[in-house]
Amino acid sequence: MFFLLYTLLLMLGGIAMVVVGAVVKEQGKGSRILNVVIGLAFFGYGFYLLFLFDGDSYRIFFYVFVLPILLIVRAVKARKEARERAAAQQYAGGQQFAGAQQYPGGQQQPGTYPVAGHGQPAPYGAAPQAHPGQPGPYGAAPQYPGQPNSPDRY
């Protein structure tokens, strides 16, 4: 009875690993090849024991019970991670900068920052605008309205 159960588990585990190696494309190429090769070896040994073997003794490999489960779990995790990565990229690709002008194809207006100042696009190379009482660009002293040399006073 144990012999029959052992050979059937060998063959079923082998078939499962071959199927997972062939179907789950999100795994690496090496993992897929490993699944298929080990699956074929398991199935071949089970087939040999069940149909061709007529001796007194045979070898029992206990990893037959663990290895298929580990490899299948690894393949499922790889598939889940790939789906999460794709969802994260889709989410990140769908995010837009507030205030940016969009054109067909999802591109911004050429020559503008995503947002400058109060949500208005600014041309590239333009000096950053400071709010009153805030330091100016590049460490310059803060400018207040009505102060000498202030931008609003000519």
Short summary of the structure?
With 154 residues, the protein is mostly helical.
Plain-language structure description:
It is built from 3 helices and no strands. The chain is mostly helical and 154 residues long. Helix 1 packs parallel to helix 3. The termini are far apart.
Strand composition percent = under 5%
Give the overall shape. rod-shaped
Given helix and strand content, the structural type is mainly alpha
Gyration radius over CA: 33 Å
Q: What does the secondary structure layout of this molecule look like, with pairings?
A:
Blueprint: H1 2-23, H2 29-52, H3 63-94
Helix pairs in contact: 1-2, 1-3, 2-3
List the main descriptive attributes of the protein structure presented here.
51% helix, 154 residues, mainly alpha
